[in-house]
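REQUEST ID: PR-0412
SUBMITTED BY: lab tech R.K.
PRIORITY: routine
TASK: structure prediction, single protein chain
INPUT:
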Amino acid sequence: MLYRDHRGILADSMATVTEINNMEELRDYLNKSWRFANKKVEEIKIKYYAYDERIDWDAYAVSARLEGEENFWPMGFLNGNLEEE
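STATUS: complete
OUTPUT:
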């Protein structure tokens, strides 16, 4: 499954594409690539977003809640739903 970070433009987002095989890998990737004042990802939500015809992805939005936070933050998109695997 492919994951890409949320960025301002699609080309920048696609430059971050990486293969993710499970939730543990996704959590590790987010903790390494998104450093938030030394806070770790506590919880991840994945929700169907839309079909993106520009890249032929059924895009699933990835959001994360960090240590000590109540809100979820948008992180990026997957081309499938890890929770179903």
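NOTES: The radius of gyration is 12 Å.
REVIEWED BY: pending
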